[in-house]
TrEMBL record:
SUPFAM superfamilies recorded: Nucleotide-diphospho-sugar transferases
Domain Glycosyltransferase 2-like: 4-139
Gene Ontology molecular-function annotations: hexosyltransferase activity
The protein, known as: Glycosyltransferase
InterPro entries: Glyco_trans_2-like, Nucleotide-diphossugar_trans
Provenance organism: Tenuifilum thalassicum
UniProt KW keywords: Membrane, Transferase, Transmembrane, Transmembrane helix
Lineage top rank: taxon: Bacteria
Residue spans crossing the bilayer: 245-272, 284-310
Length: 329
């Protein structure tokens, strides 16, 4: 078996249905699919069974332990030379595996990641969140953009790693958030090489509203401190930008009550985001929502980072992440 596709899922049967439907339409089919139900109260077994005669697919249920441990569980059942991890809220273009196989055949690499995109069927909010998570003006291009402020680190919504490399670092850690970056850093530390496969993108739904999105990025900000604690030199300037944005913009907004001219700065930044979103092909509504998504993202991540830094530096407590029990609500 060339590839083993591992999909952790928590209470998302409808999204699993869409993902599996996209997998039966692949132009390259030397892969198996392993769906790991991570303690869901809304299981997707019936959905998986519906595709059993169209896909080489297996279903497993385990007690809830987080996505990283669910992926490890799936890897233990895998038969492929290469493991590919996809989030359950993704839709895969039909040439995805053909492109990945071509990349690995022509220029092999130990692990890789691909970018994400928005599908025409996504809601306006999902498209706006997709824009904010991939724009250079919000993330610095670290998620697979052409412009980037640091080396490319694969994310687990679209990530592949050779079985041997995965086993050499003992898979994902028990980190609840940031577990994919942690895996990439441990692979780097072992001398393994990664590469971005630009054409091997997936359509990624992400969160369905701004409240859930805020929880996601807040936890990501907290996780960055844990990653800095666990990996020397892992904290880069680009990771400080959202917290710097929070401090600077908050100071500007307060000062603008006394010096109204300062209010033009957040307006100009918002206008820049709106125009950039329009240039990238988003409509007027998505452009406006993209501005909201960008502010939610930067403030959520920045506040999570600052809160975790406070716990670590002032209280001597290693941050574990917020919204753990109700992360998907």
């Amino acid at each position: 078996m060339r590839f083993s596709v591992i999909i952790p899922v928590f209470n998302r049967p409808d999204e699993v249905d869409e993902l599996l439907k996209s997998l039966i339409e692949q132009t390259y089919n030397d892969f198996e699919v392993i769906v790991v139900e991570d303690g869901s109260s809304l299981p997707c077994r019936d959905v998986v069974d519906k595709y059993s005669d169209k896909l080489n697919v297996r279903y497993f249920y385990k007690k809830n332990g987080g996505p990283g441990l669910a992926r490890n569980f799936g890897a233990e059942k895998a038969n492929g030379e290469y493991l590919i991890f996809l989030d359950s809220d993704c839709i895969v273009p039909n040439s995805y595996f053909e492109l990945v196989n071509d990349e690995l055949t022509s220029n092999y690499v130990d692990f890789f990641g691909g970018p994400d995109a928005t599908h025409h069927s996504f809601t306006s909010i999902q498209k706006a969140i997709g824009y904010s998570m991939t724009s250079f003006f919000t993330t610095g291009g670290i998620r697979g953009g052409k412009l980037k402020l640091e080396r490319f680190t694969p994310r687990s919504f679209n990530m592949g790693v050779s079985f041997d490399a995965f086993r050499a670092v003992n898979g994902f850690s028990n980190m609840r958030f940031g577990e994919d970056v942690d895996l990439s850093l441990r692979l780097f530390e072992k001398g393994y090489k990664s590469r971005l496969f630009p054409a091997a993108f997936v359509y990624h739904k992400r969160r369905t509203d701004f409240r859930k999105f805020f929880k996601q990025v807040f936890n990501s900000g907290m996780a960055r401190i844990n990653l800095a604690i666990n990996h020397k030199g892992a904290l880069k300037l680009v990771h400080l930008l959202p917290s710097g944005f929070v401090v600077a913009m908050s100071a500007i907004l307060v000062a603008s009550f006394f010096f109204p001219i300062l209010f033009v700065l957040p307006i100009l930044y918002s206008l820049m985001l709106f125009v950039d979103s329009l240039v990238k092909g988003n409509g007027f509504v998505v452009g406006l929502l993209g501005v909201v998504a960008a502010w939610v993202q930067l403030y959520g991540y920045g506040l999570g980072f600052i809160y975790a830094l406070w716990l670590w530096m002032v209280h001597g407590t290693k941050p574990q992440g917020a919204f753990v029990k109700n992360f998907y609500r």
